[in-house]
Structures are given as C-alpha cells and as structure tokens.
Write a structure and sequence with these properties.
single chain, 1544 residues, alpha+beta, six-stranded mixed β-sheet, 17 helices, 34% strand
C-alpha cells in the first residue's frame, strides 16, 4: 500500500513538474524577448557577460523617453509584459499549491515517524520483558519486528529529508517567481504613470502653443497700433530725451550720497579698529603690570642673592688684606683694628643697599598706582572697549580698602624716608575729577543717599536728633568658635533699643554666602521702648570646614543696622621660648646641641616641619683656609643661597625631630646641633613651617664660631658628569698641607660603594707646605641602586657619595663629595608582543608602538630585517631618540594570503643592543569584496546630494583551494558556497546614507550599492554663530549710542558755554560725562547657544551668514561592512545578526564640501516654505527669494509640482547673474482638512536646492452653547428681556461671522406663503417666522451681528425680546454664517402677556399662528367692570390596565408670575382650585389646590387619576374643574380632564 501510494505521488509530482517546466520555459522565452527589445544599460561593468536583467537600466530608459510618443515596438513590448505577467501569476499559483502539498506530506511523514517510534519503543520494552522471562521464540519474533520497524523508520527519515530539500528548492523558486512578478508589476504601473504624464504634457504643450498663437496675434495688433501712434511717440521721445539730463543729475547725486555713506562707513570701521587696538594695548599694559607685581618677590630674592655674593667677595678681599697685614705685622691689636674697620665698612654697604632697595620698591609701587589711575580713566572714557563691569559710584568706599592697605605697606617699608605720599581723598577726587566743586560733592552725596536701601526717618527727641545705631546686640559679635563639621550650634542674642523713643526692628536678611549655614528664629516684637530688649536665636549648621564672616541685617525706622556674625574653625596658637640661639666659639670636629620649646595653646593640633632656610659665614679672627675661599666662590657661582632643598653647609643641623605632630594644648622640644667644619663665624636661619597654612611660620636665628684644621682638599666636590653602567671613569684628587710638618692621610670608602669605587693609593704622606695627588676609579655596576640606596636617588639618577680623609693626630676627618649621574642605555618598547589579529588581504592593519629612551643621552636606533609584508614608518624605522624622549612608530601589516603569520621585528641601538618585538597575525580572505575600497565624492555644496554607485561582489563559487584562493580565516575552515549577507554601518554625524545597507549576494553575482552624501551645517554651529552676531550687533549699537550721546553732550556743553563763564566749563564737562556714564554701563549677557530656537529669526540669519561665508571642508570616514554566511531572512532572533567580525570589509569615503551657489531667502534649516494653517478653499500667496551667491551665471530649472495638488508656482525661472536675486511666488489652496506636503527641486549646473512646501488645511469648527431653540419665556407686553448665547472657536484660525434674523431676510414673505397648521395635515417646520410686533419692528434683536472670533476664543451674543402686544407664539430664526455658509440656526421663541399671571401646559387647543383679525384693546376700559372670558386647559390622562390592575396617570401644568420692571402693582399671583371634591369621586387628585406664586417664578400643579377597580375600560368619562388666578386682575380657567384606559 505504502509503495503504491509513493509511486502514485511520484507520478503526480512528475506530471506537475512537467507542466511547471513548460510554463517556466515559456516565461523565460518571454523574458529573453524582453531583453532583446530593451536597450542595454550604459552603466554595466565591461566584461560581465552573464549579467541578469538590469531593472534600473529599464527605468532609466523609460525616464529618458518620458516626453516622446510611444512607438509600435513599445506597445508590443507592453503587451508581451502583460502576457508574461499572466503566465507568472499562473506559475505562482502552481508553485504555491505544490509547496502547500509538500508541507502536508511533511506533516504525514512526521506522524508516521512518530507512530513508528512509539511502536519501536514498545517492541523494545517487550524485548526486555521476554528476555527477562527467557522466551526465545518470542524474542526472535520481536527482534525481527524491531529490525523491520527500524528500517521503515530510516526510510521514512530519508523521505522526510528529501522532501525538506524539495520544499526548500520550491520555496526558493517561488520567491524568484514572486520577485519577477513584482518587478513586472512595477514596470507596468510605471508605464501607466508615464502615459498619464505624457498626456498631461501634451495638453500643456497644446495650451502653450495656443498661448503662443494668441501672443503672436497680440503682437501683430500692437505693431499696427504702433504704426498709427508713431508721431505721438516721437514727441514722447523728445520729452524723454529732455528728462535724461535731469535724471542723470539725480543719479549722480544719489551716487555721491552713496559714496559719502561708504566713506563714512569706512571711517567708522577705522575708528572701531583703532578702538580695538587701544583696547589690546591696554590689556597688554595690564598684563605687564600684573607680571611686574608677580615678579616683585623674585626681584627681592635676586637682590638678596646679589647682596650675599657681594658680602662673600668682600670677605675674600678682606681675607687677602688680613693675610698681608699678618705677614707685615704680627700684632694682635693691629689686626683687631683692621678687622673692626672692615666690619664698619661692611655695615655701611649693607645700609646703602637696603636704602637703595627700599627706594626701588617705592618707585615700583608708585608706577603701579599711576598705571591703575590711568587705566580707570581710560575705562571711563572708552568703557565699551573693556568687558569688565564698571564699578558704580556706590563702591567708592569699597575701593579705598586696597589703597589703604598699599599705603600701610609703603609706610612700613619707608618709615624714615618718605618716597611717596598718597592722599586719602584721592579715590573721591579720582571719581569726581581734580577740580570738583562743593556743589558737585553735594550732588554726589545726594546720589549716595538715594541708593540706600529703604526709607530712613529721623528721630528727634527733646530737640535732639538721634544719630547712630538704633539697636545694640548683646553680645556685640555673634561668634561660633572651634566648631566641628556636621554639628549644630545655637546662641541666644538680645537686641537693646538704644534710640530716644519707641522703635521697631525687622530682620532683612543674612549675608548671601552664609544663608545655607545660618538660621535665625526671630519674631518681630513690635514697638520697643528705649532701653527695652528682644531676643532671637541664631542656629549655625556647620557644613564646611572654613571660617565664615558675615552679618545679620536689620531695619528700623531710623535706619538699617547689622549685627556681625563670625564662625571660626579650630585653629592653632603656636609659640617658641626663644627665637635667637648663640652657640659661641667651638673647635672644628666638636658637637654641641641646644633645645627650643614649641608650645601649642590652640584647640587644634597640626603637623610641623623644622627647616633651615639659609647659611652665612663671616670673617674669622684667625686666618681662614683656602678651602673656605674656594668653597664659597663655587657656592656663590653655582648655587642659590636661598634654596631650601640644597643647604650650603651642614655645620648647623636640626636634630631628629624635623617632622612631627603637635597636639592641642601641648609642647615639644626641638634640638639644634652645631658641628663646626669650616673656620669662621656661622649664621643660619631656621624656620618652623606648619602644614596646610595652620599657622604662620616662626623664624629662628642661630649663630656660632668655628676654628680651622691644617689639611684640606682643593676640590671638595668631584663631579664625574654623566656615567653609564659597566663603564670605567677616572679622575684625580689633590690634597694640600698648610702645616710645617708632614701628615699621614688615609682614604675611607663607605662599604656600600666598595664594589664600584676605588682610590689609588689608599694612603700616603703629605710633606709640609706641599700637596699629594690620588687616582679615583669609578666603575658603576647594575647593582648600584641596591647597594647604595642611601646615596643613589633612583628618580633623579644622581649619586652623591660622601668620602672622608683621615689625618693622623686629628680628631676631625676631611670630608669631600663625589657627584655622578648614572644612567642606563635601555630603549623601552611599550609592546613586547603585537597581535595584529585577523587581517583582510584587502586592508592594511596598523599598530602603533612607542619607543622611549630610558637614558639621558641621545641614542640612534633602526629596525633591520623587516619582512616584505611589514612596513615601519616614519623614515623606514630609523631615527634618533633624544634623552628621555618618546617616539611613536607605526607598524603596518598587509597580509598577502590567508594563513597564520609569526615573525619578529628587531630594533638595534648605536651600541649594538637588540630589542625584539614578537608579532603574530592571521590572514583573512573574505567571501565578499567591494568593487572600490575608496570613494572620493566630487565637491558637494551644502544641502545638496551627491551619489556614487559601487558593487558588493561574491566571487566564491568553488571550495577547491588548489585551483584558486578560497575564502577562509587563516588556516581555518573554508567558507561555504552560497548566499552571503552584508551590512554597512554608517558613522553618526557623517551625512552619509547607503542604500541598501543590508543585502544578500548569491555566488558569482554582485549587488549594486548607492552611497549618498548630503552635507549640512550642525545646529550647534549655527547657534554659536547666532550668539556671535547678537554680540556684534549689541557692541555696534552701544558704540553708536555712545557717539550720539557724546555728540548731544557736546552740543549741550557748547550751548551752556555761551551762557556760563570759562571757569566752569571743566565742571560741566565732567558732570555731563558722569551723567552719561550710567546709561552706557548696562551689561550685555549673550544668550546660551542652546536657548536659540531652530525656527527663530536669529537662527535663520546665522544660517544665511554661514552659508555665505562657508569655506571648503574635507572629511574622511571609514565605513565597516559586516559579512554573514547565509540569507538575511534566516536570522530569527532579536538584536544584531551573527556577523563574522574577522570578515569585515572597510570602505574609505572622502567627502569635500563647498559653499552653495544658490540660497533661499528667508533662509531656514530645511528650506521650507510654510503656509501655516489656512481655511479650506481659501487661497494664500507666499513669496520666496533665491539669490546667486557664486561668481558665475546660473541657469535655473525646477521640477514640476503636482497639477492636482494645492501648491502652484506662479512665476517662471530665469538665469541669474552673480549677486542677483529672483522672486518665486507660490500659492496654496487646501481642498480638505489635512496636512499637505510637497517638494520642488531647483537645479543648477553646480548644485541643487530642494524647497519643501507645507501647509495645513483647517475646516473651521465653531460650537454653539444653544443647540436648536432659545426660549425667552413670558414677558409683559412693552417690556424687554435679554438672554445670551456663545459661539466658541475651537480652531487656531480667526473666524469671521455674520448673524442674520430670518424675519429681516428677503425670503420671509415667501416662507410665509403656506397654509396654517389648522388647515393642513402636514407639519409646519419650526424655523418659520412667527408672530411679530404691530409696529413693524422685529420682536427679536441680536448684537453683535458681524465680527471676528479669535483663535480658541469665545464670542458672546445678546438676544433681546421686546413684544408690543400679548401673544404666546412669538418666534424667529437666527442664522450664523461662517465664510458665507450657514453654520448654525437657532429658533427663538417667546410669549407676552398683558397681565402678570400666565398658565402653560396641557394639550394644545388653539393654533400657533397669527390671527387674521386684531382683537379689541381693553386699555381704555375698566378691567374690573368687564367680565373676563373663561379660558380652558385640556389634560388627557392615560392609565394602563394589566392583570386587572390600573396604573396611575398624571399630568402637570404650570402657573407663573411674570416679573415686571415697574415698581408699582402687585408682585405675586395666587391661584385656587374650586370644588375639587367633584372630581375626587371619579379618582382624580389635584395637588396643590391653592398656592401663591412669587414674581419671576412658577408653580407646578399635578393632576393624577387612578381608576376604581370596578371601572369599565371602554367607558369614556370626563370632568371639569374651575381654577381662578388672582394677580393684577382675576382670570378664570376651566381644567378639562379627559382620562383614557389602555388595555395591554
């Protein structure tokens, strides 16, 4: 059965395949015929013979033949396409049905496989059971069954896999058929569209020909008229020739005026340049002054150094003189006198130098003051050139503080000699001028009083005016001492009234910088008598560890006052027991020490450091050695005496305590040690330095005297310069003996340097008055930093090794120092191993390495033995490294084939040292490649679009690696042959677009990719330019205002000079300048760039400015192209597809940008012409200007707008010369309520501009507060009632309205030519005009009748009802017209009575129409004598009978009282139901039977009927009840009750 079924299915499939192959063959033949008819594309790549049909080429051909008449071949081609489309639809149906059947077969195969698996599992379980039971026969049978089931299952699986493959092939073919069908459908639609466009074009051409014919006829008529009017034209020509000289004169005058304006503009520009130059000069001077201030301290130190050098030189000279004197005379007294004389001369030179120094300091300060005063004058004159905010006159008192400080500083320097004098009134004179009068000073004081905050009232008691602070605080200063951060402190403060009478006080505020930390709990106490006090609580929340000073500001009626407020942190209070230490005389080699006590009386501890600042020596009474002289000369020439880190000598030292912590309220002892090494007087300045500025430094002076030794070294500092490891360096040391006997000496080398340093010989004898030379050998090893950690500084590479020479019979050794800089010869490479990773053969991978010279000597280097696929740049890997220099080198790797690379790069130095870099890489051959790896766009204008086409090609058609290179990663697996997907990722802000960005390429095929480049200006750049333009405009405006003010002030001064004497001209000038200055000192704060809106005028102006001044730019971008094996549709998961990063391709794009040749005015970001909101059907015009900003002529062409759309171009385009503009007029006529959008492209030879036309059609939406009927109610005749209704405009447009009454229309008589209601059965419409006044005027009136409703606003209308006679059926209609169309109709109704009372309700028993006759008037009669007619009210009541039960029926009517505008008369109405018992028997009930109705109200009367249980439903009954209504008259009514029973 199964085999027969399979054979049958195979036969059916073969027959289907035959039919499909026939259809497919016919389709392919039709496609080939289409290909033969269609022209080949010009853009196809040469050499591609097996290319498919290029649909893009067909579209281009259709676009080129868009304006030509279709030929017979095109018609035949179109018919063939239609026939081919039908056959493709048939083939698509066949393929679809086949795919569905194969899927159903797959489902059946799955079911069979599942059943076979279930049977196999069951048989396996049975086999296990029989095997355990030992039934061999059953076991053999079950095993045979199991084998058969397994074979069937395997066959089913093979069939299933074959069917799946068949399904995939059929789905692929189905996809191809759908794709071909879609292409043909698109071509068919495009052909239809082109035919329609061609018909439109033909109609347009016919219209143009007709217009040209009409224009030719008009020209012929004009030519005939011109022949007739030739004589008159000759006369006009003569007149025009006479006018030419006049016009030429006028044009010359205009040109002269224009040239004058241009010259004035150039003058203004030159003035602005001069002012800018002056501003720059002033800034340079200010910088020089500031640098002078900063360098004062440096000059002082330099002068001190010079003074010390001079002292040292003088000491040398004195030493030589003393030697000569000692040789001549050996008397001690004579030597002492010479020493005293030299000392006096020394002190005299010191005093002269100090005086000279003080004089120079005073002169520098005087120059600084003069420069500051000149600078302030220039700021007042040219305030616009200085961006700093000018100081107001209120800050004159604050400006005195730095000047007073400077004066105190100069007074302290020049106590005896007064080099400069500063007048305390100079700040005031500087602001008011040198020649200020008393009147000006009074005006100045008056202005200061006006600027005080608040209004001050004087307090006078017993003829005495109170002056001073009105309140005193207790304590006087609110002081929070030694606070901790994070804690809260409170203090209670009392305010005492110190004035003469009752006073008030109010808390104004707290200093701005203390508002976050201080809170004040203060309630104003009200009036306080003199001597009374009030309390407040000040809360301090410490948040910062710093001192705060401010004040609490109060206000009283006598003036403002403030209470000082201080918050101080914990501080140190440090002192020493003595600041001068004298050791006295001591022999060289001894050790003497003294101590100093440091005491801290403060609440905070601190770290301190005990430092020595300087060291000085003076002349000794004994002869000094040449060692001291030579040492002093070297130190004066080579070192700075004020350098703390490098002291001159170690004779005066600080003990072990150099850095320590001193606790609060404690003391510590500091030892000072004196080790005399050189003979003479020794002085040293020590200083206690406290960390973090906790306390000011404390200076201590130390003095001592030393005695000399006989043996000395001529050069105690041996400098070996720069040395390198493992190299030998030598030098000589000379030791002298000044004694008359010989001495034995011995060199001692410290144990740390015994392996690196050696002296030859190690010991020796020095003869009397002679010298001995020793040899020094220095061979630094690599272990020097570890062996000599004490003497070798690894950071600075400096070796300072102290050595000693021991002399027999001498306690003190002779020290000397060996200096050397030891460096290495290493070249450090930051990367020892470089992994280039996977590298495509189409790309070059670059890695940057950095070489650093660890030595302080320059070294040459070079890379040698570089492979051919590696390149090192710059200079091919050769160069020179300066000391401690770092140099970056680029190592570029370009794989030649797909394999793994391992190689070494060797860098050699000039001393033949090798430095190796290990490199590895993996060569990759991607399955896809680009036709161009680098794209260079042509110069593209801003807002224009440039397009470049390239191809992504898949040349991987075989996996045979022996015939050609195959795609793979290194030595890995070969890429499969099949469809390969790609994706381009464009960087942000690159203005690049790739279409398609994602695609699939089949083997041996290629995919076309379009790359578009549209450069634009960023919003931030335009916003910054807008800020700059605003600033320049403001600066220009201020300069012009300043010039105008100066000219007006000058004219006023000239006019006042004629009236006033010459002595007061200067005062008037200063007064005018001071009055003009505050007007020009208003600061200008430019807005933040982000605050400027994109659609604002400032943004558009900045955009136009940038477009005009745009300079050429060049940008380069690298776009990655990720590659994935398989189709893009196979990826089902969310996120990015699983692309292979190693197969990534890269596309380099070069994008040059130029300025646009054409711009649109007004300029906006997207060149949008926005018509805004417009009513439907209303036409709006807008004008747009285009300007040629290039240097060449431009021919303009534009695309055609949609003829059936709302937008139209009403002007034609013409050629523009450089700088010329043209106006383009567009119209917008919306046809419906929606947003319209259309684009038009203006093209030139250089660039294109896209104009976006937008507009919004809005249908006016106006709602009325009254839906249909406006009932005015009852009104007394000849009186009025007014009611209102509203129209609300719910749109964003202004709506014009027109209100019309139908009673005043021309058609009211036509509408009234109908039969009354009582004569016809048809209903009369409610909107007819009813009863009107007898006087002919309309009974209703409306106000206003015309106007405009603003957008989203409401208009109120007032309706007045004024009847002149009694009637219940007044009516009219109001028509509200919007845009000449009726939008709303409102029925107006009203009723009028002659008397106050009225009754309404019930069933109608009369007609609502005007009577044909006029009732007689009762105004002349006495209403009391005339009997009123009886009026009727009909009430029909319906009761429902169900299940022998009756429901209660009820009706209502109203009795009302009209509110009259007249004061006289009765104001209420009373009604009474007469004899209600008569109807109660029949089941009627009336409520109420009697009531009073006030004026302006109504009362409802309810009538109900409940039938009796014996009532016959078919019986008709009726009842009548009388009611009397009493008001200004009495009216009688009969209420007719008509009950009816309805049986259900």
């Amino acid at each position: 059965m199964e085999e027969g079924h399979r054979s049958q299915n195979e036969n059916e499939e073969e027959s289907k395949l035959d039919s499909e192959q026939d259809v497919k063959q016919r389709v392919e033949e039709q496609l080939c015929e289409c290909n033969e008819i269609m022209p080949e594309s010009d853009n196809e790549i040469a050499g591609d013979e097996n290319s498919e049909i290029s649909w893009e080429d067909i579209e281009e051909e259709r676009g080129s033949s868009r304006h030509k008449q279709g030929s017979y071949s095109e018609t035949a081609q179109m018919r063939k396409r239609q026939r081919l489309l039908k056959e493709l639809e048939l083939l698509l149906l066949v393929k679809d049905s086949k795919v569905q059947k194969i899927r159903e077969e797959l489902k059946e195969y799955r079911k069979r496989m599942e059943s076979l698996k279930v049977q196999r599992n069951k048989v396996e379980e049975d086999i296990q059971e029989q095997q355990t039971a030992g039934n061999i026969a059953a076991l053999f049978r079950l095993r045979a069954l199991h084998r058969r089931l397994c074979e069937e299952l395997r066959e089913e699986e093979d069939l299933y896999s074959n069917t799946v493959m068949t399904l995939q092939e059929n789905e692929h073919e189905l996809f191809k058929v759908e794709l071909e069908q879609a292409k043909l459908v698109r071509l068919h639609e495009q052909h239809k569209k082109e035919e329609e466009e061609y018909e439109v074009q033909r109609s347009l051409e016919a219209k143009q020909r007709l217009e040209a014919h009409e224009a030719a006829s008009l020209q012929a008529e004009k030519r005939i008229k011109a022949i007739k009017t030739q004589p008159m034209q000759d006369i006009k020509v003569q007149k025009m020739e006479h006018r030419k000289p006049v016009e030429n004169a006028r044009l010359h005058n205009q040109k002269a005026v224009q040239f004058l304006k241009e010259s004035m503009a150039r003058v203004r520009q030159e003035q602005a340049k001069k002012e800018l130059q002056i501003r720059e000069d002033l800034e340079k001077r200010m910088q020089s002054i500031l640098s002078l201030k900063k360098n004062i301290e440096l000059n002082q130190e330099n002068e001190r150094a010079i003074q010390l050098r001079r002292k040292a030189q003088a000491a040398v000279k004195e030493k030589e003189k003393r030697k000569e004197a000692m040789i001549i005379e050996s008397g001690i007294a004579h030597r002492f006198m010479i020493y005293e004389k030299h000392q006096q001369e020394n002190e005299k030179r010191k005093r002269e130098f100090k005086e000279q120094q003080d004089t120079s300091k005073a002169e520098i300060m005087a120059k600084i003051l003069r420069e500051e005063s000149n600078m302030e004058k220039k700021k007042r004159i040219n305030w616009a050139l200085f961006p700093e905010k000018a100081k107001s006159l209120d800050n004159i008192s604050g400006s005195r503080e730095p000047r007073e400080k400077l004066q105190e500083y100069l007074k302290n320097i020049c106590e005896d000699n007064k080099f400069i004098s500063i007048n305390e009134d100079e700040p005031i004179k500087k602001h008011l001028g040198a020649g200020t009068s008393k009147m000006e000073q009074e005006i100045f004081a008056r202005h200061l009083e006006k600027q005080r905050s608040g209004i001050v009232h004087k307090q006078v008691a017993a003829g005495r005016e109170f002056k001073g602070c009105p309140f005193y605080s207790k304590p006087g200063v609110i002081h929070f001492q030694n606070f901790d951060v994070g804690k809260t402190y409170k203090k209670r403060v009392s305010l005492i009234n110190a004035s003469y009478g009752i006073a008030y006080c109010k808390l104004i505020g707290i200093s701005d910088h203390m508002k976050d930390f201080i809170e004040v709990e203060f309630k104003p106490p009200g009036p306080l008598s003199a001597g009374m006090s009030c309390e407040m609580t000040v809360i301090f929340k410490s948040m910062q560890n710093k001192d705060l000073e401010g004040e609490l500001m109060f206000r009283a009626q006598t003036g403002s006052f403030a209470v000082p407020l201080k918050c101080t942190t914990k501080k140190c209070d440090l002192s020493v027991d003595k600041t001068f230490v004298d050791f006295g005389p001591h022999v060289i080699g001894e050790t003497v020490s003294q101590t100093i006590n440091l005491t801290n009386r403060g609440a905070q501890g601190t770290y301190f450091e005990f430092l020595r600042l300087n060291f000085t020596t003076s002349v000794s009474k004994e002869p000094r050695s040449e060692q001291t002289t030579s040492t002093g000369n070297e130190e004066n020439n080579g070192k700075d005496l004020f350098d703390i880190g490098h002291p001159i000598s170690n004779e005066i030292k600080i003990g072990q305590v150099t850095k320590d912590m001193i606790d609060p309220f404690s003391s510590i002892k500091l030892p000072i040690i004196f080790l005399p090494t050189d003979p003479g007087y020794v002085q040293a300045d020590l200083e206690l330095v406290f960390f973090s500025g906790a306390y000011k430094n404390i200076s201590i002076k130390v003095q001592a005297q030393a005695i000399d030794v006989p043996v000395w070294v001529s050069d105690p500092n041996i400098d070996l310069k720069i040395c390198m490891y493992d190299r030998l360096y030598q030098d000589a040391i000379c030791v002298h003996n000044r004694a008359s006997i010989r001495h034995q000496i011995k060199f001692e080398v410290c144990k740390e340097l015994r392996h690196h340093l050696e002296f030859l010989p190690k010991s020796g004898y020095i003869p009397a008055h002679s010298s001995l030379s020793f040899q020094l050998k220095f061979l630094p090893r690599k272990s020097l930093p570890e062996d000599a950690k004490i003497y070798f500084n690894e950071e600075t590479l400096v070796l300072e090794a102290p050595m000693n020479i021991w002399v027999t019979n001498q306690i003190r050794s002779i020290p000397f120092m060996i200096h050397a800089i030891v460096t290495c010869s290493d070249i450090e490479i930051d990367q020892q191993t470089i992994d280039f990773g996977p590298c495509s053969i189409y790309e070059t991978v670059l890695q940057t390495v950095q070489l650093r010279n660890r030595s302080i000597l320059s070294q040459e280097f070079g890379f040698v033995g570089i492979p051919e696929y590696v390149d090192v740049q710059p200079n091919d890997g050769f160069g020179v490294l300066l000391p401690l220099e770092s140099l970056s080198l680029d190592i570029m790797f370009n794989a030649k084939q797909a394999k793994e690379y391992n190689f070494e790069l060797i860098c050699k130095s000039e001393i033949n040292r090798d430095f190796t870099i290990f490199c590895k890489a993996v060569g990759v051959l991607p399955p896809l490649h680009l036709s161009h790896s680098r794209v260079h766009f042509a110069a593209t204008a801003l807002n224009d679009t440039a397009i470049v086409t390239l191809h992504v090609m898949n040349s991987h058609t075989s996996r045979n690696e022996f015939t050609h290179p195959v795609p793979r990663i290194g030595n890995g697996e070969i890429a499969p042959v099949g469809p390969t997907s790609f994706e381009f990722v464009v960087p942000e802000s690159s203005y690049l677009t790739i279409v398609p960005a994602v695609g699939t390429v089949m083997p041996g095929q290629k995919c076309q990719v379009v790359l578009m480049f549209k450069p634009m200006l960023s919003d931030l750049e335009v916003q910054k330019e807008a800020v700059r333009m605003l600033f320049r405009a403001e600066e220009t405006r201020r300069i012009l205002e300043k010039q105008e003010l100066e000219s007006s002030a000058k004219s006023e001064q000239d006019s006042s000079n004629k009236k006033k004497p010459q002595s007061k001209q200067k005062d008037l000038k200063e007064h005018s300048s001071s009055s003009l200055k505050p007007q020009l000192n208003t600061p200008f704060k430019p807005p933040d760039p982000s605050d400027i809106a994109v659609d604002s005028d400032d943004y558009n102006a900045a955009l136009a400015s940038l477009l005009r001044s745009f300079k050429e730019q060049f940008h380069s971008f690298v776009i990655p192209c990720f590659i994935k094996h398989g189709d893009t549709t196979s990826h089902k998961k969310e996120g990015f597809p699983p692309y292979s990063i190693h197969n990534t391709l890269y596309l380099e794009v070069n994008c040059p940008t130029v300025a646009p040749p054409l711009i649109v005015i007004p300029c906006n970001k997207r060149s949008t012409v926005n018509f805004g909101e417009n009513a439907v059907g209303k036409r709006v015009l807008k004008k747009v200007m285009v300007q040629n900003i290039s240097q060449d002529d431009l021919d303009l062409q534009a695309t055609v707008l949609d003829p059936g759309g709302p937008f139209q171009l009403l002007s034609f385009l013409r050629a523009l010369q450089p700088g010329e503009t043209q106006n383009l007029i567009f119209s917008f006529t919306p046809t419906e309520s929606k947003l319209f959008y259309e684009s038009m492209e203006i093209s030139t030879a250089k660039a294109n501009i896209s104009l976006v036309l937008t507009g919004y059609g809005v249908a006016p939406k106006v709602t009325c507060s009254v839906e249909k009927v406006l009932d005015m109610g009852y009104v007394l005749a000849n009186q009025k009632r007014t009611m209102t209704f509203q129209l609300q405009n719910a749109t964003r447009l202004h709506v014009m309205f027109d209100v019309k009454l139908k009673s005043l229309s021309y058609s009211k008589y036509k509408d009234q030519q109908v039969l009354p209601l009582f004569l016809t059965s048809n209903e009369i419409p409610d909107h007819l005009v009813g009863t009107q006044n007898y006087g002919g005027q309309s009974v209703f009136s409306v106000s206003p009748i015309k106007g405009c409703i603003e957008a989203m606003q409401t208009q109120e209308f007032e309706v007045t009802f004024s009847p002149d006679h009694e009637n219940q059926y007044y009516s009219d209609v109001i028509h509200v017209e919007l845009f000449d169309k009726v939008s709303h109709s409102i029925q107006l109704k009203g009723a009028a009575r002659e008397h106050l009372m009225f009754v309404e309700g019930g069933d109608p028993i009369d007609v609502p129409m005007k009577s044909l006759s006029i009732l007689p008037s009762y105004e002349t009669m006495d209403v009391t004598d005339v009997s009123q007619p009886l009026k009727s009210i009909l009430l029909s009541l319906k009761s429902v009978k169900s299940d022998n039960k009756y429901t209660t029926a009820s009706r209502e009517f109203q009795v009302g009282c009209i509110q009259s505008t007249h004061a006289a008369g009765k104001k209420s109405v009373e009604f009474i139901i007469d004899n209600p018992q008569a109807v109660h028997v029949q089941g009627f009930a009336i409520d109420p039977l009697r009531a009073v109705v006030e004026a302006g109200t109504t009362r409802t009367v309810t009538v109900s009927w409940t039938p009796h249980s014996e009532h016959d439903a078919l019986q008709i009954i009726s009842a009548t009840v009388k009611m009397s209504v009493k008001g200004d008259i009495t009216e009688n009514y009969q209420i007719i009750l008509m009950p009816v029973v309805v049986v259900t």
